[in-house]
Design a protein that fits this description.
Elements (H helix, E strand, L loop, with lengths): L2 H20 L24 E2 L2 E2 H17 L3 H6 L3 H6 L2 H10 L4 E11 L3 E8 L5 E9 L2 E4 L3 E3 L2 E3 L2
Length: about 160
Amino acid sequence: MSLYRFSLLLSGLLGMLLIVGCVKNEPTPGRPGAVPRPKGTASIAKPVGGETKETEALATVKEYLQALQEEKFETAYDMLSQESQSKHPAPEFAEQGKREMPSWDLKTLKVLEISADAAVISVQQTEDPATHGFNLTREGDKWKIVYWGGAPGMPYPK
């Protein structure tokens, strides 16, 4: 066998190994042993009031950003943690929100981290592929946005 043919055969074998190696060996949904796992969610969540912590955290960020986009600053302000509200008076928050509000692709919301009392949710900007992490804290039975600085639509974490 010539060196050329050998290298072609070796390249073909390596290509097949790469393709086979990329296919995951997971159970097919609907078959015994199949366990569906939603993408982008942490596995440590437990139901809280009929919803998972992930679902509640994602909904909180989505509602917060929708309120800001609709200029419902009072609604968005009520979604801030108590400590964040103590750092930013409501009028200052509204004024800042009017000046600096990026546009977010709410379909890209994803849980990055979550625990019993804290979460980080990422979301992508529509005009830029950059993502931003929104930090949340648990107060009572609700998730609240942590806002220490920056702009209401892009708060800096603590």
